[in-house]
Amino acid sequence: MEYTTTNVIDRAAMALGGGLVLLGVVGLGIVEMLDGAPYGAAPTTNDAGEVSATPLVDPNLRTGLVIAGLVVLLAWQCYRMAAMPHGETDDQRVEVTAD
């Protein structure tokens, strides 16, 4: 088995982990911007203490998506380390001739 190429598990883990991180940061960030001001994660209150504006998407949901994506990528990396046979490396050596 060649370890320098990606297999189905590698591609699926990269797509799932990267997709979750991008959805949590970029996707829901764009949704928040399209919703309009305020952009903060905390509810906005007026002088009387009444909540006047809240974010459209719960910040806990966005944080959870990013953390889930990072956990998937960490689990994939642990799988790659365990699947690599001992004594072999993933490096490719190329001979370069001097001019």
Protein traits:
99 residues, mainly alpha, transmembrane, membrane
Structure described in brief:
The chain is mostly helical and 99 residues long. 54% of the residues lie in helices and 5% in strands.
Computed CA radius of gyration, to the nearest angstrom: 22 Å
Number of helices: 2
- Summarize the amount of helix as a percent range: 40-55%
Mean pLDDT: 84
Unreliable spans: none
Largest sheet: 2 strands, antiparallel
N-to-C span: 36 Å
| H-E string | HEEH
Shape: elongated
Question: What strand line-up does the widest sheet have?
Answer: 1-2
Strand content: 5-15%
- Summing up helix and strand content along with how strands pair, one would put the structural category as mainly alpha
- Count the beta strands: 2
Transmembrane segments: 12-31, 61-79
Protein name: Cox cluster protein
Keywords: Membrane, Transmembrane, Transmembrane helix
Please describe what this structure looks like.
This protein has helices at residues 8-35, 59-83; strands at 44-45, 51-53. It has 99 residues and is mostly helical. Strands 1-2 form a two-stranded antiparallel ribbon. A hairpin with a 5-residue loop joins β1 (44-45) and β2. The longest helix has 28 residues, at 8-35. 8% of the residues are buried. The chain crosses the membrane at residues 12-31, 61-79. It comes from Halosimplex aquaticum. Keywords: Membrane, Transmembrane, Transmembrane helix. This is Cox cluster protein.
